[in-house]
Description:
Helices cover 9% and strands 34% of the residues. The protein contains 5 helices and 25 strands. Mean pLDDT is 92; it is low at 1-21.
Amino acid sequence: MTFTRISLSCFLLLGATCAQAQSPESALTSLNPAEARAFELQVLQKVADLSLVPPRINTSPLPQYDYDQLDYGMTIGIARTPRGRLWAAWVAGEDGPKAFMVAATSDDDGATWSKPRLVVDSQAPHLPLPRSVIVGNFWTDPLGRLWFFFDQTMNHYDGRQGVWVSVCENPDAENPTWPQPVRLCHGAVLNKPTVLANGEWLLPVEHPNIRGVGPMRDANPELEPLRGANVYVSTDQGKSWSRRGNVRFPKPSWDEHMFVELKDGRIWMLARTGDGTMQSFSSDGGRTWIEPSVPTFKHPAARFHIRRLASGRILLIKHGKTIDAHEGRVTLTAWVSEDEGLTWKGGLMLDERKGLSYPDGFQAPDGTIYVSYDRNRATDGEILMARFTEAEVLSGTLTDPNSKLQMLISRPLKKKEPKPAKR
Length: 423
């Protein structure tokens, strides 16, 4: 007897169900419609549970993952380590089920970049569905350790995902050591943690309030209470994390939320929704949140970047030539606020082209601001960086000789197969 790959896998995984019968045929052909549907859901959940298998960080990815083997580029994030090394990560494969994650480094302030130095690719030909690694970020904590967050999920989104992290103690070494990743919680992390004045670390964990993709549509229904823009907190410098609060925004999308601690002690959360960016505020450290509202800037349904600067101003990277308008994922501009996000000044044009997405960044100890983003993911697949100062954001023009825009981090070089002619 011959089984398909998925039916055989499911039969083996559900051995306890079939063990009571002499054959899988007698166990399954007698099911009524309700029993058949229950069995289908059991099978889907077992497939979804493949995302719980620990991923592996590949620190010797060449030549398999060299640029001539890559054909897609979606930026994830960028960070600077204590001695000045830059780490940048991006998604290869696609923005979908076949995604995996790649990272490279620069030791000359972004002028040149290494070939891929680490890869997390959880795809495997024997799996019944693709296992994706598609959301994450780099973050250098106050102790100088480099955190590498990434998710693992079945078929792009399985209703659960899972935040995995590896913390590197020697990110400036010639051969950094990346420990085996550990799973922190359900959901995914796209943006960096925020360190509060009281020393707590807030981690923005999204558990999208949307259905799973394709066959995963009905997986993990018991996690419905977790859906939304979650707040996870660590009070022991990352040794442990616990869920503290949650916001469910209207017209949910990928939340991709970020936090800013305001000077009056409130936490300001901003998130992506189907109608663009929305906001909420918490006065108790992220435990409870007020009704979502619209912020003072306009942005499409796409990722943005917002952080407190050392000066006390708040930095915003958004789409659009003006603060109150945008034309979709076209142009990237930088702004600062001196009144806790009520109004915005400046407007430095970082890139005036189309097809720009997903800004992420940080401020170096000397005050320089670094922002990464991508351009034309599926065609050019470029991962780019801008380096500029706070004064240049306010003036709207570059004046510092060290500042530079549209710096190339990576570009996929694999030749794309020509599409067959239409008949």
